[in-house]
Every structure is written in structure tokens, then in C-alpha cells.
Amino acid sequence: MLIDDRFTAVAARFFTMFRRKSQGGGALSVYLHGEPVLDIWSGWAAPDRRWQADTLALSYSTSKGVAATVANRLIESGVLELDAPVATYWPEFAANGKADITVRDILTHRAGLQRVRGLVPTIDDQLDHDTVAAALAAAAPDPMRLRASGYHAINFGTLVAEVAQRATGRDFRDILRTELAEPLGDNDFWFGVPREHRHRIAQLSPRLGIARIGMDRLIAPFAPVPQLRSARSAVFDGWADLSVGRRPYDAMMPGWNGTFTARSLAKMYGALANDGLAGHRRLFHAETTADIARMPLNSRYDYVLGAAPQFARGYHRAIVGTRLTRRAFGHFGIGGSGGIAIPGDGLSIAFVTNHLGYPVMTLGDHRLPLLAALAQRAARTAAASPATAPRFEQAG
To answer: For position 32, what pLDDT does the model report?
Structure first.
């Protein structure tokens, strides 16, 4: 473990979250000005297994921020153009009135292709990237896309991955390796975990839902309600239970089945918060990170979420403490995991866990926003008092 003296309060709060086996386990990593200042873990990866330094956690929509970072690398290098039509790279995509949909539209959830329910016949089909990509290419977009964003809960990653594959002629997992893992010197970015690494994966629990009512049962009664039809269409029956099983680790679904360490996520967002640099490794030019950080308002309303998350270039505005702030961005995942960059402080925070949310509502919780607020306070205190004690390392 690594704990910088200036961030001991953050570490102390983290450790209180995993005192009992019933609380599962997790990991927290913080980078300041591109250098690690916290790398800690605690709790249980499974009922019979402690969380370790290399434990991986499936992190749901945290995945979208990683997929977006790969896309932004390709944009910076000129392989993709942000405002080019998707059909430039993927000709079949132009079908059914989609010829003018751009790469930017995909990254800001304005492609109108959020519908996954009924898109393909079976769950096996849903787990096959090529089948879903072909169905999306043939689909007609939701006309609401012209008025607002519509969160692509499942399909975002498929769209990003297919555009990247068409533009490069390479498998997305290979692109992930060359555009992210190798530049950062960290291999723990997985969309589909190889069998030789699956012993490292934390076991997720409990089922996703509210008040112990499963996700499918929870949303089924709202099917006739017009205002909720778009939200229901963005997930498929069986998704919630599937996601806590083993089958997602065979698939490549960069919208939700990304499996990471907190360390890998914090290093990535550390570069985004530090003019493109993580230590001596450059991920982006400073101009790119500045453009991402500006994040213009994308939509005042999202017709799937019923909120205004303000998407830009694949990320969304982040909650730090209790506030959605324009000074931080990243991507949260259902259940509590996520990563945040705060460029003004040169700070990144990543948290992964196998214990999904609160006992009453497993869809999300306050752990990452709370830890982010504490880390920001520590970083600002350190900046105001540069003579504070140096970092120390603690083995464990």
C-alpha cells in the first residue's frame, strides 16, 4: 500500500467502509500532479478471499470513461475526427436516417441508439459484439436525439468500439492495449477478462435493485408509462442478474463490463487532470486535456436519465461531495465504482468495490463523491502548506 501523510484522513475514511465481511471490499487510488499519493485496499473480494493489491472489480459504467479515453486518443492522433459522420468509418451505419450522426454525437449520447430491449433476439446475442453492432447499424435513431441527450447505458461502448475497429482495422481490445495500457504502463484495463486473470476478480453482491426488489421486477410495471419508456428500453431483461455472474467476463461490452483496479483508473484520470501526463508518461497533449476539461453543456435534460449529466467527449460532470461540479469530470458506475479528474487541482480519484451501493438501494451511493471531496480538501491543504511531511509507503 501507499499512503502519503497529507492524505491520511482520506485513507482513514476509506478503511471505515470495509470493517465487516458483509460490507465486501474495495480499493482507492489517488494521483496528485500525475504522481500516486494513495493506493490502498481493504475488505473481502469474496466470502473466502481478502481483497489484494491486484484484485479486479467489474465496474459497470465506469467502463464508458475508459472507452472514451481510447476514442479521444484516436481523435488526437487523427485516426478519428470528432465531427466526422460515423458512416465515414462504418458505411452500414448510414442506414435508416443515420448518415449525419457524428462521432461527437456518440460520445455525447446523442446518437438516438439507446434502445437495447428487443434489439437482438437473445442474451447470448446481446453478449456478442458483432451481432449488436450490426443491429445498431440497421436501427433507426430515436428522434428525441435532436432535442436532448439519451443515455446509451449498454450501447455506448459497442458504438465506440465498432467505430474504433472500423477506423483502425484492429480489434478493440488490441486498440485498448496500444492506446491506453502501454502508454500508461498498466495492463489492468479489461473488456472481457482472460481466464488466467479471473482468479483476481472480486465477487459482486448483492443483486442490483431497490429494497431487495430486482431490477427487472422493479422496472416492469412502468412499461406503459410514456415518460419512462426510453429508460426501460435502455436495458434488457436479465441484465442485472447476468452482470453479477461469470458470463460477462467472456464478452467485450465497453459500455458496462469493464474490469479494472482503482490504480489503473486513477492513473488514467491522473493524466487527464495533469495536462496529459501521468508521471513521466504522456497520454495526451495538454491542448486535448484542456478541451476535454472545458466540457460545454451538452443537454439540459436527458430523456433516458431524466436528469442533466452534461456529457462531453464521453465523460460527464462529476459529483464531488454533494455537488455536481463543472470543475470535475469522469464516469461513475452503477453500484458505486468510478473515476474522477479534477484538473484545477491536478487531482484524480478512483474507487472500485464489489459491494454494490447501500443495502436498501444497490444502484449507487455516496462513497466516491465523499472520498473525492476529502481528497480535494487534502490536495488544497497540501498546496497551501508545501512543507508538509513527505509521503511514506506501507507494505500490506
So the answer is: 98
Q: Measured over all CA atoms, what is the biggest interatomic distance in the chain, rounded to whole angstroms?
A: 62
Neighbours of 217 (CB within 10 A): 11
Which of 311, 370, 282 lies closest to 17 in space, CA to CA?
Answer: 370
Per-residue confidence (pLDDT) for residue 305, from 0 to 100: 85
pLDDT of residue 294: 86
Model's pTM, two decimal places? 0.91
Secondary structure class of 335 (helix, strand, coil) = coil
Q: Are strands 311-312 and 281-282 parallel, antiparallel or unpaired?
A: unpaired
Please tell me the distance from the alpha carbon of residue 211 to that of residue 214, in angstroms, as a whole number.
Answer: 9
Question: What grid cell was written down for 251?
Answer: 464478452
Give the residue numbers marked as catalytic. Answer: 61
- Alpha carbon dihedral 303, 298, 340, 218, in 10-degree steps, equals 0
Domains assigned to the chain: 2-393 (3.40.710.10)
Q: Do you know the residue count of the chain?
A: 396
Q: Where is average pLDDT lowest: 168-177, 180-189, 249-258, 345-354?
A: 249-258
Q: Give the least confident one: 51-65, 192-206, 298-312, 357-371.
A: 357-371
Torsion of CA 112, 293, 278, 393, to 10 degrees: -100
Q: Give the residue carrying C-alpha cell 421486477.
A: 217
Overall average pLDDT of the 356-378 stretch: 79
Residues 6+ apart with CB under 8 A from 33: 274, 346
Residues in CB range of 382: below 8 A, 6 or more apart: 6, 32, 388
How many whole angstroms separate alpha carbon 362 and alpha carbon 360?
A: 7
- Produce one character per residue of 8-20: b if its CB has 16 or more CB atoms within 10 Å, e if not: eebbebbeebbee
